[in-house]
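Customer ticket, subject: "Can you confirm the structure for Probable membrane transporter protein?"

Message body: Hello, I'm evaluating your service for our small team and ran a test protein. I'd like someone to confirm that this is what the system normally returns, since I don't have a reference to compare against.
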Amino acid sequence: MSLSALIAGLFTGIVLGIFGSGGSIITTPALLYLLSVEPKSAIAMSLGIVAITATITALQHWFKGNVNLKITAVFGLFGIVGTYAGARLGVITPVVVQLSIFALVMYAAAWKMLKPARPHRSAGAAVVEAAEVCSGGRCLVHVAVHGIVVGALTGLVGVGGGFLIVPALVLLSRLPMKQAIGTSLAIVSIKSYAGFAGYMGDVPIDYGLMAVFTAVAIAGSVVGTRFAHRISGDALKRGFAIFLMLVATYILANQIF
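Agent reply: Thanks for trying us out. I re-ran your input and got the following:
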């Protein structure tokens, strides 16, 4: 494995640890352009790498109390169904379509994250709302539906889907940003395993390469998690949105030119 690929693996883990997503955004291009892996195989291997790395990183966040198990269970359970179905569809979908959809959804997620709060809400009301984490039946149904939809997109475009999950957890489930990141990692790991299973048997997998890349990414995730707990929630939210827009622009430009 080249030095640039090792750096990409390390950065994959750091991004996962800080933002709770974004691992496949780095992993897939690294496998494609640095290691010359075939597109479908790169998408499948990326899901496997992120699944393991996100599991380790989610455990770190769980030990710090930043994983909501109820939301993880509901979102993850229904996400598995959507992800597996999306992966089966992804096997026969042209790569250019997959990556273009990926970039457009990233723009939408970034816009949601950067959208300012409604001015008529008082600071006290915002605190109360933030404390009232989604627990009612109606809210959990919405979480389940989002799990299926996000899962389908996850399987189709071959990413963990944290860039969609984090905004959903902040905006729908009203989780604080840091808890949304930890919960997102737990959900990403569950859905990525399902997505990887959806590609197995239909595309070739280099398990040796996956093992090395994953080991480096896990080391990076430890570093990223430490940084995440030293940055304010608002700063993480803005940084996450800007990160999404930059990567989405690169992907679209790469597809056009």
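A couple of notes from the result: Confidence is low (pLDDT under 50) at residues 120-131. Residues 3-256 form one domain. Feel free to reply with more questions.
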